[in-house]
Amino acid sequence: MFLGNYVKTKGVLEALYAAPEVCAKNKDVVFAFAGEWRDEESKTI
Asked: 22 Cβ partners below 8 Å, 6+ apart?
């Protein structure tokens, strides 16, 4: 999944919230998040 910038409307929070469930159902999962937060509000949630 490529987001470019971490923006609430692009689903970055949904990706973060889904990570534990994905890891619970799949053994070999790696999440790599790299990029910039577009706004401070999304960064602090």
From this structure: 29
Of 37, 24, 34, 45, nearest to 1 by C-alpha is 34
Interior angle at CA 25, CA 23 and CA 29, nearest 5 = 40
pTM of the model: 0.57
Domain boundaries, the chain: 5-44
Integer angstrom CA distances of residue 33 from 19, 36, 37: 12, 10, 11
Q: What is the pLDDT of residues 7-43, one digit of tens each?
A: 777 777 888 889 899 999 998 998 887 777 777 776 7
